[in-house]
């Protein structure tokens, strides 16, 4: 398959949309905008996976797409919004690294992903290779988001968007068994649950979800940034 | 033998661009007014304003130099030259071999330079402020535009807009992530270059937020008409440029005869109309950014263009 064929083009474009939404996650300043962007990414991921299912003739992928659409585009954003409402977290996101610097690092990470994936997969088809490169980029950008955000809730979103990249990679590879995908999804669900629990605990002990308050307890700084 | 049709197409194109520019401005204003539930002025209103302004006597500040007199002509001339190069309803016009994207960027930069000089000439605070903002935004939009050009050059093997447009029209390039990223970057650049909403509000004279209008405060009469015409022509140019690159459907070859031209004209009008509607909807649903956020917005556009170019460069180099 190459450029100019419809199935290839659309798959490429949908994977690109998921990657673009990862960048948008890094660009947003407000919590509600971050959650909306994450929901959009879930929807784009569901479309990408469903298209892969059609292109590869693998009905199992439709199930994955359905799971992604219901969980990531609807349920998790709703839960996150409820969490925000409950904690009254209507403040803006405070990135540890500036927005511009974060985006520049993001471009570097995408270049790194392409440099790593393309030489390593010389035997595979062009579709799988570029899709893998984009999926790895989404994973790396999710990690970047976890690193550069101070609030627990945006770190959770970074983790979930990282998992979007894993699903995208799994959908691009032909013949991946459904069990692997389901177990990945279950693992991430557990992780998300733990992150939520962690956030609750943090809230209970510090009355805030701002992780910079924890720096004092790591013993790195004698003085806390805030009283 | 193809000289005559290509010359005719070129002249018709330039005349249409000049006629359509103020119409587009009026159309966007009218659509915005309708979307906001107002009656709205007739789309012909910018043309009426221009004709009225041309009859008025221009007033110049006492300390205005020759720059204030010459700059509107230089800016309008450069913009008109660029507008003549951007393909509209047909490919292969007389000047098509010169229609290099880098040349178009240069002509637009020249027009911007003249505008900033004219704004600073009299030495009022608002003019200086507007010029400073305009040039600082340009420091982001120009590299973003050049990076998008770079991506097109890698895809098409040329920076000639006419050739790139023909290639995209044939569909040989396919849908690429790079094209999507470049289109987003160019959309942001187009909004900033035309002083449209997230960057600058074209409908206000509020002192602290204006950029483009602040530079025109000192001009009046004929010179104001020239500046307004230049702004309108720039809008038509950018919409045609976006249409040529990202909606490359139905453009006629120059020597195809009047019937094909007619279809090309129809397609061009539809594309411009769609883009104008999209612009009006966008301007109705979003608010203006704070001036200090604009470099971030344009920096994101720059990075998207860079990402598209890097993606294309690495994937073609390593494939």
Number of domains of chain B: 1
Q: Which outline of chain A best applies? A: globular
Oligomer: heterodimer
Write down the Rg of chain B: 19 Å
Helix count of chain B?
A: 11
Which two chains form the greatest contact, residue counts included?
A: A-B, 32 and 23 residues
Low-confidence spans of chain B: pLDDT under 50, at least 5 residues? none
User: Which overall shape of chain B is indicated by the principal axes computed on the Cα atoms?
Assistant: globular
* Average pLDDT, all residues of chain B: 87
Radius of gyration of chain A: 18 Å
Number of strands of chain A: 0
Share in helix of chain A: over 70%
Structural class of chain B: mainly alpha
Looking across the biggest beta sheet of chain B, what order are the strands in?
1-2
Q: What's the order of the H and E elements of chain B?
A: HHHEHHHHHHEHH
Subcellular location (chain A): Cell membrane
Protein name (chain A): Hydrogenase-4 component E
InterPro entries (chain A): HyfE-like
Main location (chain A): membrane
Question: Could you characterize the architecture of this molecule?
Answer:
The complex is a heterodimer of chains A (227) and B (319). Chain A is an all-alpha fold and 227 residues long. In chain A, 75% of the residues lie in helices and 0% in strands. The radius of gyration of chain A is 18 Å and the shape is globular. Chain B has one domain (3-318). Chain B has a two-stranded parallel ribbon with strand order 1-2. The model of chain B has no long low-confidence stretch (mean pLDDT 87). At the A-B interface, helix 1, helix 4 and helix 5 of A face helix 7 and helix 11 of B.
């Amino acid at each position: 398959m190459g450029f100019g064929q419809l199935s290839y083009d659309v798959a490429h474009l949908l994977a690109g949309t998921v990657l673009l939404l990862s960048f948008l996650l890094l660009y947003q300043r407000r919590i509600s905008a971050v959650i909306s962007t994450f929901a959009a990414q879930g929807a784009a991921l569901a479309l990408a996976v469903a298209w892969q299912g059609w292109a590869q003739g693998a009905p199992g992928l439709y199930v994955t797409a359905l799971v992604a659409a219901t969980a990531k585009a609807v349920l998790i954003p709703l839960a996150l919004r409820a969490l925000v409402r409950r904690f009254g977290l209507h403040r803006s996101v405070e990135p540890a690294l500036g927005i511009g610097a974060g985006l520049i690092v993001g471009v570097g990470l995408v270049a790194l992903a392409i440099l790593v994936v393309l030489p390593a997969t010389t035997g595979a088809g062009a579709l799988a290779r570029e899709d893998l490169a984009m999926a790895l980029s989404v994973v790396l950008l999710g990690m970047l988001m976890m690193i550069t955000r101070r609030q627990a809730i945006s770190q959770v979103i970074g983790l979930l968007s990282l998992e979007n990249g894993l699903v995208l990679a799994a959908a691009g590879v032909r013949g991946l068994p459904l069990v692997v995908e389901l177990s990945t999804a279950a693992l991430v669900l557990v992780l998300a649950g733990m992150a939520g629990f962690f956030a609750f605990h943090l809230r209970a002990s510090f009355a805030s979800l701002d992780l910079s308050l924890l720096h004092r307890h790591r013993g790195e700084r004698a003085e806390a940034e805030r009283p | 033998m193809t000289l005559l049709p290509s010359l005719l197409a070129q002249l018709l194109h330039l005349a249409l661009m000049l006629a359509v520019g103020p119409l587009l401005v009026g159309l966007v204003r009218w659509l915005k007014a309708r979307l906001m539930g107002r009656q709205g002025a007739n789309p012909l209103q910018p043309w009426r304003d221009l004709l009225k302004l041309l009859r008025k006597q221009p007033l110049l500040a006492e300390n205005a130099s020759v720059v204030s007199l010459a700059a509107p002509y230089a800016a309008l001339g450069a913009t008109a030259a660029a507008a003549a190069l951007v393909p509209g309803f047909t490919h292969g016009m007389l000047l098509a071999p010169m229609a290099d994207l880098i040349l178009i960027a240069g002509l637009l930069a020249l027009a911007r330079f003249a505008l900033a000089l004219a704004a600073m000439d009299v030495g009022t605070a608002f003019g200086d402020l507007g010029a400073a903002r305009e040039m600082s935004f340009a420091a982001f939009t120009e590299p973003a535009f050049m990076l998008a050009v770079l991506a097109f050059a890698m895809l098409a093997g040329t920076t000639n807009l006419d050739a790139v447009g023909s290639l995209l029209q044939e569909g040989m390039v396919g849908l690429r992530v790079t094209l999507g990223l470049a289109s987003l970057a160019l959309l942001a650049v187009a909004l900033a270059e035309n002083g449209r909403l997230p960057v600058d509000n074209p409908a206000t004279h509020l002192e602290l937020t204006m950029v483009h209008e602040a530079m025109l405060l000192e001009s009046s009469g004929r010179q104001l008409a020239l500046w307004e015409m230049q702004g309108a022509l720039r809008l038509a140019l950018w919409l045609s440029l976006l249409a040529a690159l990202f909606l490359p459907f139905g453009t006629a070859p120059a020597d195809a005869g009047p019937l094909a031209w007619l279809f090309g004209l129809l397609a061009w009008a539809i594309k411009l109309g769609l883009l104008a509607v999209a612009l009006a909807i966008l301007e109705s649903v979003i608010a203006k950014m704070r001036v200090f956020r604009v470099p971030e917005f344009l920096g994101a556009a720059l990075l998207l263009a860079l990402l598209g170019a890097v993606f294309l460069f690495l994937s073609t180099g390593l494939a």
